[in-house]
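Re: Re: ligand-bound prediction request (bumping)

Still looking for help on this. To restate: I need the protein modeled with zinc ion bound, output as structure tokens. Inputs repeated here so nobody has to scroll up.
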Amino acid sequence: MNPNLKCSCTAHAAMQPVALAEALLGVQCGDCQGMVMAMDDWRAWKVAHPNRVPHEVDDEVIEVFDLAAVRHCPACDRLMQRLRVSAGPDFRIDRCVACQNLWFDQGEWRALVSRGLADRLDELLSDGWQRRLQTEEVREARVAALRRRYGDDCIDELDRIRGWLDTQPHRDELLALLRAD
Ligand SMILES: [Zn+2]
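Reply:
Sorry for the wait, this slipped through. Here it is.
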């Protein structure tokens, strides 16, 4: 990782080397505490130390992440791509497709480590993972809309009936009976 990078935060502070794990270095902004890590460095680290546990870097745990900020790559200034870590809008990391750099806002690396994801970044960045979370988000949004429309009691009861129906050997006949006049 180039240690002479300037952070893209408003302070444009110089970035300092930071150890994300034993033998895995990134750089960190002294102002916003954001960090950049090269995916190549991560891959080399992963191959050399498959069982090594990443460090939880950060001074404090931040519960709420920066949602709106658009991130520019500190190395090339291109717009970074937002990637889902989990379903919902609250946890995304940024990637520069050109440089293969990852950006972690303050608290995000620690959150990845605590969820056991810091050594599974290749999975997390895969199309399959991103697609699965997108599908999950669409499904959750649909359920939320149904709950707003019909009320929690109604949807809970529907879930209960569906759960019971799924245990019945004659499920389809029972459903047909329900629909019959
Ligand atoms: Zn870049």
